[in-house]
Predict the 3D structure of the following.
Amino acid sequence: MASINSDLKEIVGKRWAKVQLAREALYYSNLNNRITMEIFFLKDKADIDPLLARRAENTEKISSLVKKIEEQLESGKEKELLDAVRAHRSPYIDSYLHGIDLLVDQKKYDEAQRNMVQETLPRLFAYHSAWNDFVSFQGGQMDEAAHRQVAEEALRDAETHYRLLVEQLPAVPYVAEPGAEGEWLYVSPRIESMLGFSPSEWLADRNLWFHQVHPEDRESVLTEEKASEARGEAFHCEYRMFARDGSVVWIHDAATLVPDAPGGRPVQHGVLFDISERRRAEQELAGKAEELARSNAELELFAYVASHDLQEPLRMVASYTQLLARRYKGKLGDEADEFIGFAVDGATRMQQLIQDLLSYSRLTTKGKALHLTQAEVACNAALENLHETIKESNAEVSIGPLPGVIGDATQLTQLFQNLIGNAIKYRNERKPEIHVAAKVNGNEWTFSVQDNGIGIEPQYSERIFQMFQRLHTRKEYSGTGIGLAVCRKIVERHGGKIWVESQPGQGSTFLFTIPRAERAEK
Amino acid sequence: MNSRTIEILLVEDNPGDARLTLEAFKEGRVLNNLTVMKDGVEALAYLRREGPYANVKQPDLILLDLNLPRKDGREVLSEIKADERLMKIPVIVLTTSAAEEDIARAYSRHANCYITKPVDLDQFLRVAQSIETFWLSLVKLPSN
């Protein structure tokens, strides 16, 4: 296709040539006018002949110029204008020749002058005016071409920008007829880097697109296309396509149906996005989550199995050392008693550790499904279990109104039991006063178990929730250090978090959150 | 109070556990004779008085562990309860398993009671004592 620029060049070239010829003709016409003036003011009319000869020469030149122009005429309008030039030229020349005749005859100077002013000059002006019309017509043609060029260049610029924009998108815009065998009318060249097929291949084969769609995804693609058309909404679909090299590319296809596109047929204006990376990342993430879940499950199973299987031989050790103590205490000497005492103590402690480990791992392996549970009921059950301890320690436990939550009743009871049990256990010389409360905090409940016991140094506020971490010797306070780890695991299983606010000697407040469930609060 | 010697069959593969049970019942007040069979096949042969067990006394009470070699306790339980000559003998499942499905399955196979072996000796002795008090003193068992 010839460029618009060369069109303009051609137009300008042709028109300009004619304009030049016209100007030349006018130049010679003006020369003749000057010669006429010279003739008018000649003192000696005998000198007239060379002037007349020059004049005749010019007239000849003008005639040949007009002929040249005539050869280059392109349109009827041009011919019309040139005919007008000719039509005005003859009367002008006739009138002018008549004036010369009058001048040559010395006696008729006045008449010649009048002829010049009244006849020849108006005809000259008319004649020149005809030339002007011709020239300005040529200019107009050039202008028009130039204007068109400017407009077309602007359009082309816009198109270029648009195309660059479209083609540099990290996606593939397209225009295609709907359906599996719809014709593809446009596709961005990027299709080649996305799927390995060139745009021309793409446009040439109306079956190519659907052919490259993964067979497992074809049905859903067509279903979604129909569904989106029925809904009158944009088409959005994620599916797999095979690239030329056979690799799978995940595509997000978003398209809008244009029912009355130019050409009178419905087409889809769409964009193909390569979402393989995202899919890969998603799969990787899902894989990692699965792996993590599996490794957690394995770890829990390991803890369960290990503790379960450890129990068996340990039961033997513990039972027989206890039996030894029972049957032979005081019979084998003080040292033997002491040794047996250590053995019994060690075995007992290990049993406790294993049992704790087992119950800790059971929190998830044997945890029940979460359902509507009244925290107050769970808390009261905990008090019931702690009945003896509360009585012995003379503790005063008050419970504020507690809400219903989505939880595991057994575990919530254990949670309250561990926290209240700790509050009593880590008491000082004062009478233990414990308060359990709950308050709404945005989307969750914050439960608190407040005591007036010994408190905790702030630097230990993290460590106490770790398994088998203890701040005191067993002599001071018994236990394996599992209680708060269990609490944390229970709270986490319920989707909350647990922490402590405390100062040594000032008592402690253990706080934990559980997400609010509107259903549970009605 | 029963004055005759009570026959107890303990089916238990772990000698430590067997001895411990023996010791626990030794401390009891009821005169008893505890026999230990180490697997399910032996136990059933003993109960059915087969081969070398032709002349043994039928036990008054069976203490049955679940995890046994050759034929495990669950099968032994089913066979005892399906055998007209044996089904009247109370079977106490005495095992380390606290698994709910084991408990449920034992009862559905007509175990007379299910006890998880306590880890602590004192508790274990108390269990033996309770078995003795309940099954050997309080409960009226059918005479052989």
Chain B has a mean pLDDT of 84. The radius of gyration of chain B is 14 Å.
